[in-house]
Amino acid sequence: MKKKLLVLAALLGLLVLVLGIPVLNLVVKPPVGAALAAAGPADPLFAAAAVPLQAQCGSCHIPGAALPFYAGLPVARDVIRRDIDAGLASYDLVAELAPAGGRPPSEPALAKLEFALVRDTMPPGRYLALHWDGDLAAAQEKAVLDWIRSVRRASYATPGFPDAVQEGVIRPLPASVEAHPARAALGKRLYHDRRLSGDDTLSCASCHDLAKGGTDRAPFSTGIRGQKGDINAPTTFNAGFQFAQFWDGRAATLEEQAGGPVVNPVEMGAEWAKVIEKLQADEAFAKDFAAAYPSGLSAENIQHAIAEFERTLVTPHSRMDRFLAGDAKALSADEKAGYDLFLEHACATCHAGKLLGGGSFEKMGVKQDYFAQRGGKTGKADDGRYNVTKRESDRHRFKVPTLRNVAQTAPYFHDGAAADLKKAVTTMAWVQRGVDLPAADADRIVKFLGALTGEYEGKPVQ
Q: Which of 147, 230, 371, 431 is spaced 20 to 30 A from 200 at the CA atom?
């Protein structure tokens, strides 16, 4: 009898503990700070969104936020610390939603927050078990979503489309962009000019062929004297919309990017002085160049001209763009199903905006170790953004590639390891989301991706 009473007492004690913590959490709340609101713009919509986000999400997603009373308990301390570290690593509300310099939040930052709210993926169940009021109320969720959509309209709109289109996670490309005609024309000539290489054998178009989706369709490009690079050549189509250039983002602008390969000893292997000497010897070209650039031939002006041309490499009028603009018949039933799966599996949280990518750095292998799956051996190119910042947290992080015209740009990934789109889709589902994607679903997503092929100079991108 005594043993039964002891067991019963232990069970009652456990029940009191289990129920006591969430009940106390309803009464004893940590002070709510204002770090998010203080860091953001003086915008009433942002303020309305920041208050509930700080209160409900701040413990795990704002550095230094006050913690619940039980965080000091011996058993809870380490668990909570791990959860906070993981939460901040995945999404720091202040850094993501109130970037330094008054910049708007990135499109992926908005997409991730929207996905979590609409799909009800946060907060996790174990948090709600202890915090019965941990979810945002309907009015609070609406305030956050209203702010997200206002940012898209104000900062990322595609001219000529209604608000309903501008507010979406994916939007159409513009039909054209502004560029200096004479300078862009010179840039086009330079883009295809082999005199920019050390031995006059290679041009920008050698690795970024506009007849091959803006790539060379090789895992790694072949440079001067047959040297092989160590990273896949990204497309130059729509490059002007990317937030940074190269897989590791080491170039902030198209101009900076345009100069890199010219002097890279493995790529074009040239020297600017000799390139300028060759171009200057071409009297007709030098005359045209001087007309567009009165200061004459220089490395800076050559890079500017190439960048000006690359800004014109816009590929609008894909079937997906027509669908977004209201043409329900632009996509087939399978393509629409693929689009739904693309959204369901959170692909658009990184592949967001008009480019469906090109707006953030993300880790390759969030849920599974991509490099172990590939074979384990890694090289410098696999370190990604780490090569620029030297921060360990940036190792294996890469700029998210655009999915525009992706059906034309095989092979895929920074290492060119995925030979076809289906392999790329199933690999990403597994290593980024931990989802073993059924073959039929992968096929539908691939069909949807095919609808992202646009037009260049009035013809479909090949």
A: 230
Is the distance from CB of 155 to CB of 241 less than 8 angstroms?
no
Closest CA to 234 of 410, 417, 374, 461: 410
Count CA atoms within 13 Å of residue 274 on its CB side: 13
The answer to whether 437 and 425 have CB atoms below 8 angstroms apart is yes
Residue 1 pLDDT more than 90?
no
**Does position 72 have pLDDT exceeding 90, yes or no?**
no
> Which amino acid type is present at position 321?
D
With H, G, I as helix, E, B as strand and everything else as coil, classify residue 342: helix
pLDDT of 235 > 90? The answer is yes
∠ Cα 254 258 262 (to 5°):
165
Mean pLDDT of 127-133: 78
Per the prediction, the chain carries an average pLDDT of 93
Q: Is residue 334 within 8 Å of 445, Cβ to Cβ? A: no
* 201 touches 192 (CB < 8 A): no
Q: 269 near 419, Cβ under 8 Å?
A: no
Nearest to 318 by CA among 158, 209, 175, 108: 175
pLDDT tens-digit readout, 9-18: 556 555 555 5
pTM for the complete prediction?
Answer: 0.92
CB atoms < 10 A from the CB of 123, how many?
A: 19
- Higher-confidence residue: 123 or 323? 323
Nearest to 286 by CA among 303, 306, 309, 302: 302
267 a catalytic residue: yes
What residue ranges define each of the domains in the chain, with the CATH number in brackets? 28-156 (no CATH), 181-311 (1.10.760.10), 319-460 (1.10.760.10)
Tokens 């232990």 identify what position?
10
pLDDT of residue 6: 61
What is the largest distance, in Å, between two alpha-carbon atoms of the chain? 107
Does residue 106 contact residue 400 with C-beta atoms inside 8 Å?
no
